[in-house]
Amino acid sequence: MPRGSDALALRARRITGRRSRASVAYGLARVLRTASDTRARFTAAVPPHRREVLVARPVIDALGHRLHGAEPVTARGMAMLTELLSEPTSPLYRPDEPGALGSRLRAAAAALEPSNRWE
Predict the structure, then answer these.
(1) Which of 1, 4, 56, 6 lies closest to 28, judged by CA?
(2) How far is CA 19 from the centre of its chain?
(3) pLDDT digits over 81-96, tens only?
(4) What's the CA gap between 3 and 98, in Å, rounded?
(5) Does residue 50 contact residue 101 with C-beta atoms inside 8 Å?
(6) Can you tell me whether residue 94 is helix, strand or coil?
(7) 7-62 residue pLDDT tens
């Protein structure tokens, strides 16, 4: 196996490991708490788009449950969730249109599921 493939395999194991899964689940829970808290706060963090987060709450809750479960997840799905949480221009913070966050979260949830076919 070429070195690049080894590095990708290592990254895939890390991003799908328990620690990374717990970190992303915590990030999703934090977003829900922040969106549910109506008190004004002074922070340098980009706040999540409250309305979009609250509308997407069922998907976010399901993702948190999935990430805490024992079933394997894919690196692609984890990367999609990590990007949503960390990129300030993602629909989590700046939705282009109503429902954009929910759509991206559902796409990430689908991408978390390992394929049943051999690759």
Answers:
(1) 56
(2) 14
(3) 999 999 989 999 987 8
(4) 43
(5) no
(6) coil
(7) 888 888 899 999 999 999 999 999 999 888 777 666 656 778 899 999 999 999 99
